[in-house]
Sequence to fold (86 residues):
Amino acid sequence: MAVKIVESCVNCWACQPLCPSDAIYEAQPHFLVDAKRCTECDGEYADPQCASICPIECAIVDGLGEALNPLGSLTNIPLAKLLAMA
Ligand code: SF4
Ligand code: SF4
Fold:
């Protein structure tokens, strides 16, 4: 399994140097993860290092498409409030 960077990535470069597998690379229109290299940091760190530093909610998803930093997880804004603002 590998994580995936999706379109909400803002190309901030924060995750790229942290990846122990050198799996994250600059691309257009946003950074991408080489699925062949990504180990989900298994055996090296308790949490995926890219998601642990990513400042954008929902920019990195797991192999099932679930956001590693879901809506509201970094801002602490309750999901119900976010949905009401949408
Ligand atoms: S989960 Fe770990 S190995 Fe995979 S891209 Fe993120 S930092 Fe790299
Ligand atoms: S840390 Fe998040 S927003 Fe920044 S480049 Fe990586 S995936 Fe994109």
About this structure: The mean pLDDT is 96. The beta strands are 4-5, 24-25, 32-33, 60-61. Residues 5, 9-15, 31, 50, 53-54, 56, 59-60 surround iron/sulfur cluster (ligand 2) (CB under 6 Å). DSSP finds two helices and four strands in the chain.
